[in-house]
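FAQ

Q: What does a record look like?
A: Structure on top, sequence underneath. For example:
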């Protein structure tokens, strides 16, 4: 019997340092950071957006090898069918069904088909790279619930979390998407109140995975930036990764090599020595009324994580 594939899933709300965290973990030997696999069908296989290495997805040798190994080539994948299936299974509104002890036969059949494709993808990555752990920074909570149901995967969850006020401030700004090369495309913007509600829900739903058998730890963005080595050591132990040489991490910098990532924050294209600087613009720039709103909505979570 082949051993299960170790998946280290990074969950949480975007703009919480998850891309940097995944990039850092990807520097460890036998650990592959693939970025946000949730978007591989739409933005990779279909739209041919840029891989983290700078090549269009379909021209990247790494992904070509994975596609051949997993599916006999990407052209063999029914992308539209898979996207339709994803919309019917992998959304937060389906979490109650995904977490239930039993599913309706119809829903279960869809989940089975969806997870079979994911398992094939991860197997392809393991076969093509020899990786012992795959870091998936998809972030979306429902995806973690889907992975829990996939036989042959051993999923652990790292919640990437940041002060809700910083997250809300960041999502209210306009940011260009770097991986889209034909014309300008911008990241969606969200009102601070909406981000606050998402933040609270993500925290609760990710922790609700623990009693369902999926180990979960929290990694605070603020800790990752100020104590990077300590945080990485903690994750390495949690994930059962062999303790490795962490010489790529300094007190306030990290040395990053390019990785073949799908989607994610623009920072995934940055390589070489990267300074770790805490982004706390929100503390001085955020509108006071919005700051009060986000503080009030997320108060219990802020308290639980030591932010207030
Ligand atoms: Zn690539």
């Amino acid at each position: 019997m082949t051993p299960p594939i170790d998946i280290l899933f990074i969950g949480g709300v975007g703009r919480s340092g998850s891309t940097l965290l995944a990039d850092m973990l990807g520097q460890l030997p036998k650990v592959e950071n693939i970025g946000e696999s949730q978007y591989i069908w739409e933005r990779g296989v279909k739209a041919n957006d840029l891989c983290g290495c700078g090549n269009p997805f379909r021209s990247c040798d790494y992904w070509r090898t994975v596609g051949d190994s997993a599916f006999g080539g990407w052209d063999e994948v029914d992308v539209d069918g898979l996207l339709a299936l994803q919309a019917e299974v992998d959304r937060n509104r389906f979490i109650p069904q995904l977490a239930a002890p039993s599913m309706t036969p119809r829903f279960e059949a869809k989940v089975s088909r969806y997870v079979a494709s994911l398992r094939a993808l991860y197997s392809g990555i393991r076969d093509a790279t020899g990786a012992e752990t795959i870091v998936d920074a998809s972030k979306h909570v429902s995806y973690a619930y889907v992975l829990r149901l996939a036989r042959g995967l051993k999923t652990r969850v790292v919640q990437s979390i940041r002060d809700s006020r910083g997250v809300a401030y960041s999502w209210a700004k306009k940011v260009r998407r770097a991986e889209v090369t034909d014309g300008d495309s911008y990241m969606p913007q969200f009102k601070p109140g909406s981000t606050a509600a998402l933040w609270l829900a993500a925290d609760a739903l990710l922790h609700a995975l623990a009693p369902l058998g999926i180990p979960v730890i929290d990694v605070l963005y603020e800790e990752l930036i100020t104590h990077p080595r300590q945080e990485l050591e903690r994750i390495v132990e949690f994930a059962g990764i062999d303790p490795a040489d962490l010489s790529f991490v300094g007190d306030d910098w990290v040395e990053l090599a390019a990785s073949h990532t799908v989607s994610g924050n623009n920072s995934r294209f940055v390589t070489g020595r990267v300074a770790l600087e805490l982004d706390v613009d929100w503390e001085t720039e955020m509108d006071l009324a919005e700051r009060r709103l986000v503080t009030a909505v997320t108060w219990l979570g802020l308290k639980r994580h030591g932010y207030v």
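Q: Is there anything notable about this one?
A: The mean pLDDT is 95.
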